[in-house]
């Protein structure tokens, strides 16, 4: 079946408007919560290392989904605009956060309006499988980062693109593919941070461990602290800064 992003994501979120809808639909809500909690911890460390305090800053949450990262930035005092391709996301989040602006748009088609101190694009760009649309989406996000501002995005940045197990709605791309687009828009990649090691990963014969998300979360915290998580199968957070 052809992958149609708007219909695909709106159907998923209509059926499961929780972290399973934007994460691993076949695994438990507890498992997905563990994955997102670890993402939040990694993001917090990355922003702290760069000296970025969200309070009072303008943040664009691209692919706001069920509002996990929207809530993260709002809780820290940011002025957030949420953007998503799925009408269900925009409608539901508008009810949940009545004072926050949400925009229905496809970033691969339309450049967001405004200028932002930080653009957050967690688990978004590798779901744009068409290369031309992907490059346009990255360029649009770069363009709305304010001078001196930050872009944070995730991908696995594999050395060999499109591994055999990749789903139809996933297209992982190497860091080398991102760098020319970022630099053309005055963004300098600073660092990548692995977001998982065992969580959010195919565990093969050890997949029964997915029933113990608390254990996996604790193990991943230790493994990340020890420097694991830089292989091609692991999602990573890229932090890039705009000159100026």
List the helices and strands and how they pair.
Blueprint: H1 5-15, H2 19-22, H3 29-49, E1 58-62, H4 68-75, E2 79-84, H5 87-96, E3 101-104, E4 116-121, H6 131-143, E5 145-155, H7 175-184, E6 187-194, H8 213-225, E7 236-242
Parallel strand pairs: 1-2, 1-4, 2-3, 4-5
Antiparallel strand pairs: 5-7, 6-7
Helix pairs in contact: 3-8
CATH H-level name... which superfamily? Vaccinia Virus protein VP39
- Count of runs of 4 or more consecutive helical residues: 8
Adjacency order of strands in the biggest sheet:
3-2-1-4-5-7-6
Q: What number of structural domains do the residues give?
A: 1
Count of distinct strands? 7
Please estimate the helix content.
Answer: 25-40%
What series of H and E elements makes up the topology? HHHEHEHEEHEHEHE
| Unreliable segments of 5+ consecutive residues | none
Task: Write structural notes for this entry.
The chain has 244 residues and is an alpha/beta fold. The protein has a single domain, classed as Rossmann fold. 37% of the residues lie in helices and 19% in strands. A 7-stranded mixed sheet has the order 3-2-1-4-5-7-6, sandwiched between helices. The N and C termini lie far apart (45 Å). The mean pLDDT is 95.
Summed up:
The protein contains 8 helices and 7 strands, in the order αααβαβαββαβαβαβ. The protein has 244 residues and is an alpha/beta fold.
């Amino acid at each position: 079946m052809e992958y149609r992003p708007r219909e695909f994501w709106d159907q998923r979120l209509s059926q499961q408007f929780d972290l399973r809808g934007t994460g691993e639909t076949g695994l438990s809500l507890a498992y997905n919560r563990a994955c997102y909690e670890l993402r939040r911890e990694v993001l917090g460390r990355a922003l702290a290392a760069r000296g970025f305090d969200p309070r009072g800053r303008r943040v664009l949450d691209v692919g706001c989904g069920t509002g996990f990262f929207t809530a993260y930035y709002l809780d820290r005092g940011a002025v957030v605009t949420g953007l998503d391709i799925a009408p269900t996301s925009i409608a539901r989040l508008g009810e949940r956060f009545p004072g926050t602006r949400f925009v229905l748009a496809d970033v691969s088609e339309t450049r967001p309006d405004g200028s932002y101190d930080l653009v957050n694009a967690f688990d978004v760009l590798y779901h744009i499988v068409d290369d031309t649309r992907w490059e346009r989406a990255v360029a649009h996000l770069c363009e709305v980062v304010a001078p001196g501002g930050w872009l944070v995005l995730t991908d696995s940045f594999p050395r060999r693109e499109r591994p055999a197990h990749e789903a139809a709605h996933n297209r992982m791309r190497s860091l080398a593919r991102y760098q020319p687009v970022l630099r053309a828009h005055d963004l300098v990649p600073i660092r990548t941070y692995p977001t998982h090691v065992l969580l959010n990963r195919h565990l093969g014969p050890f997949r029964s461990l997915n029933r113990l998300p608390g254990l996996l979360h604790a193990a991943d915290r230790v493994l990340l602290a020890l420097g694991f998580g830089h292989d091609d199968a692991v999602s990573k957070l890229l932090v890039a800064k705009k000159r100026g």
